[in-house]
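@channel sequence for tomorrow's demo:
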Amino acid sequence: MNTNNKNFLYASIGIPAVIIGFFVGVYVNEKHGVSSMTAELNNTSLATSEQFSTFWEAWKTLDNKSVFAASTTPQDKVYGAIKGLASSYGDPYTVFFPPVEAKMFQEDIAGNFGGVGMEIGIKEHQLVVVTPIKNSPAFKAGVKTGDLIIKINGKETTDLAVDQAVKLIRGEPGTVVKIIFLPKDAAKTVERSITRAIIDIPTLETDTKPGGVFVIRLFTFTANSASLFRTALRQFIMSGNNKLVLDLRGNPGGYLDAAWDMASWFLPTGKTVVTEDFGKNQSPNVFRSKGYDVFAGKNLHMMILADGGSASASEILAGALQEQGIAKLVGTKTFGKGSVQELISITPDTSLKVTIARWLTPQGHNLSHDGLEPDYKVEMTDKDIEAKKDPQMDKAVQLLNQ
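structure tokens (generated this afternoon):
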């Protein structure tokens, strides 16, 4: 994985070594810059000496009263204070990494360990499964999109950051992690003991449905997904059909460049694919179609399948094609994750991951605020899965064959 690629939309924990991810776009800033104290003292956004006196009073009280005072160093307290500062921004993806955690995070994105094969995120302050990867240990254990994560190896997940949860879930292949889930729409929790493994992620599959409907199922947006997608589109064109289903269900995202390239096969030059909104910090960055537009004038009929496990780059691609009138969405609302984090080195051995931008669809829909709504809402129940039925695919095929 190239951690210097600023257009990577999620940092999974070791692809393909493991998929216990948290959906973020990660920029990596290698500069070890700390502003001079003189400049910082002139910054009116900083706390006043009077406001900061509360901090010192709390420090002194803890030193005098806490039973753990003797085992807590001044450096531990400073790191803890910075963690609290990061959390005060109310963004679960803005996180400070002390030395041990900073090193671990770098190992995470390098992929040096095993996992259970599920992407996780945060919804309404609760850890949730975005999607289990097909045929992974989590998938085989019965983990499903939307399951809440209540405990990990006995530790409560209330107020637990995604990064901390990842740290608990990851581990050596062959070892077991015990996780208590609250399945979606269930009243009782269930404990699952899952054996960690090296995860093999499928990228793309093709199929043909009744009526000549060509199906491309994309599992993730890897560095080679765009090339594989181009080959699949060539197969579709050579088939002589004009009915296409793009299946993005359970696709947690990946490289923006891949989603951008894929959208360009359907859009003329200059059409907006996605906008990177930096707020008041700088002007937005608009990603426009490269103009491949191979289906122009060819009467293409297209449906996109999406669900609560479709996130990040999946939402960018689906949102662009939906709002530009190329395809209709079938399924359920997508996850709603479209923010970009920059990884900044604070000192040589500590770092800060900060949300610096949000992704907006062509019509300005904030993907971080909410997911994409389907044009045709079709649920997939546990009974459907057990009976090996796929009402979402059936609906898409039906619509294309009308």
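heads up for whoever presents: Residues 204-338+356-401 form a domain with the 2-enoyl-CoA Hydratase; Chain A, domain 1 fold (CATH 3.90.226.10).
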